[in-house]
Amino acid sequence: MAVSYQKIKAIRTHKQGTAGGEEQSSSRSGFSSRGGEISGFYMGSRTRKEGENTKLPYQFSKAWLGSLSFFLQFTWKETHERCIRLASALAQLQISRGDVVAALAPNIPAMYELHFGVPMAGAILCTLNIRLDSAMVALLLRHSEAKIIFVDYHFLHIAQGAFQILSKARTKLPQLILIQEPEQQAPISSKTNFTQTKDLEYESFLAMGKADFEIRRPKDEWEPISLNYTSGTTSSPKGVIYSHRGAYLNSLATVLSSEMGSMPVYLWTVPMFHCNGWCLAWGVAAQGGTNICLRNVTAKGIFSNIAQHKVTHMGGAPTVLNMMLNAPASDQKPLPGKVLVTTGGSAPPPNVLFKMEELGFSVTQLYGLTETYGPGVFCTWKPEWNVLPRDAQAKIKARQGLHHVGLEEFDVKDPFTMKSVPADAKTIGEIMFRGNTVMNGYLKNVEATTEAFTGGWFHSGDLGVRHSDGYIEIKDRSKDIIISGGENISSIEVESVLCGHSAVLEAAPCLFIY
């Protein structure tokens, strides 16, 4: 892991220079390392621990209605202590700097805590898509060389299937730690010998940690904080490396662009395994907010939680918005106030945006990729557009928008000449990114990393135009993909699965209009 990271770091520094051609500096955006020590996302938790704000330690950090109909909640003080114990327990399992710790879980409190506890141990968090089958999970565990995997009980069979595949290939298995719901817990003795324990349980594992564990802060701001795999739309999934610096900048930029003020109440409808929840796993903490965790995303659950917890912000793919709009009247509840919604994954139809606003939601479209830490572009609405006819507003809402403050440069270019296309809303080019909120590179894939940064810019593979006001609009995909539920599905993978059936001789995914 460390060797591949150093190679990628060197390539990225060389390839991704400034507009004038200089090499990228680690302090270009004004967030310097202060002697090599980065506060990063531990800053919020540390403030709460030291009591600098007398209210925040007891502000609820997260709440959760479990599938067994019980309600669970934690304060920020409790969350900080749990994350410290988690980091300590990981250290006791010999997790060192640069080791990968995987997670296969939905939006539950443990998944949120892993976003802090794993980096606090100096390790790299790898969140796996819960839609994956055992074969793909096995492939990613082997590629990432994960030493530990935290598994929610609902997906235990997927992990066990992956372990069987790895065992047949004589691959060393990661330590499995099972996440159960509180009423299912079976406490383990505090004298348990970790090195001899076959299976561990999450809450008991936390209890083994020490409250006075010293956080292993990054020595270099470009050190990896997380590993996110792409959906494999053009080939096998690629491991995208996020740095502490990039995650820090993108989290704060996303908070600003989402108009998330102090102490927001965020409803987790965006999967935390997607770009670390669009970096809001850390962003909400920076604002001292409350995280409302949802194991399952249903229209009834969304409306109920909004009403009960007075939710201020949420996000999700257009399919989530459609689900809410088409929910039975009995499932819909009046909003306690304006709820700000960010949506991405695919472009939502304008009528969906209008209908959401009629219900009391304010929807902003965003755009980004796994390689850009999730959202990097927001279609910020201008007040002067309110007087435009509905059709004109619909066309504007279809745009992806402008890049946020954390992203240095964003352009639509001719991929062959690398010149910017005219801002005429007609000339199509490739959408490209450059800056600190672009990935470090692809794990163990120097060739793909070099290709992605051809010409000193990250090539998105998406085609679009730029309007005269600077707003960009995607027109087509250069990748042949299928989008379902906000997920990118590889047509190549579909073909492979179909051909894997004994009754199928040949297969070719194609467009079917009905």
Describe the strand arrangement of the main beta sheet, using strand numbers.
Answer: 2-1-11-10-12-13-14-15-16
Task: Return residue spans where pLDDT drops below 50 for at least 5 consecutive residues.
Answer: 17-55, 186-197
Measured as a percent range, the helix fraction is: 25-40%
| Main pleated-sheet profile | 9 strands, mixed
Shape: globular
Percentage of residues in strands: 15-25%
| Assembly level | single chain
Tally of extended strands? 23
Query: What is the CA-based Rg, rounded?
Result: 23 Å
Structural category is alpha/beta
End-to-end CA span: 47 Å
GO biological process, one term: fatty acid metabolic process
GO molecular function, one term: ligase activity
Protein name: AMP-dependent synthetase/ligase domain-containing protein
Family: Belongs to the ATP-dependent AMP-binding enzyme family.
Describe this structure in words.
This protein has about 525 residues and is an alpha/beta fold. It has helices at about 1-15, 40-50, 75-90, 110-120, 135-145, 155-170, 200-210, 245-255, 275-280, 280-285, 300-310, 320-325, 350-360, 390-395, 445-450, 490-500; strands at about 60-65, 70-75, 100-105, 125, 150, 175-180, 200, 225-230, 240-245, 265-270, 290-295, 315, 340-345, 360-370, 375-380, 400-405, 410-415, 430-435, 440, 460-465, 470-475, 480-485, 485-490. Residues about 15-55 and about 185-195 have low confidence and may be disordered. The strands form 4 sheets. Strands 2-1-11-10-12-13-14-15-16 form a 9-stranded mixed beta sheet, with helices on both faces. The protein has an 8-stranded mixed beta sheet with strand order 7-6-5-3-4-8-9-19, sandwiched between helices. Strands 17-18-20-21 form a 4-stranded antiparallel beta sheet, with no helix packed on it. It is built from 16 helices and 23 strands. It comes from Rubroshorea leprosula. GO terms for molecular function: ligase activity. Belongs to the ATP-dependent AMP-binding enzyme family. Pfam families: AMP-binding.
